[in-house]
Amino acid sequence: MCGDFNAHHTRWNCKRIDAKCKAIYKYAHCKNLEILAPPTPTRYGPNSATTIDLALTKNFAYRYKIESIPDLASDHNPVILNFDFNIVPLIVKRQKVSTNWDNFKNHLNKNVKIIFPKILNSNDLENEVNKIMSDITNAYNNSSRPLKHHEELYLPPHLRELKTARNRSKKVWQRFRDPASKNLFNRAQARFRNAMSEFNQSMYISQNEQLNIYDGTLWRRTKRLKSKRSEIPQLKNPGTNLPSHTDLEKAEIIADHLESQFTPNDFGDPNTERTVEKSIREFKNEIRTSKLKKVQPSEIICFMKHIKINKAPGIDSITNKMLKNLPLKIILKLTEIFNHMLKFRHFPNCWKTARVLPILKPGKDPTHPVSY
Question: Taking every annotated instance into account, which residue ranges of this chain make up the domain Endonuclease/exonuclease/phosphatase (predicted)?
Answer without folding.
Answer: 2-80
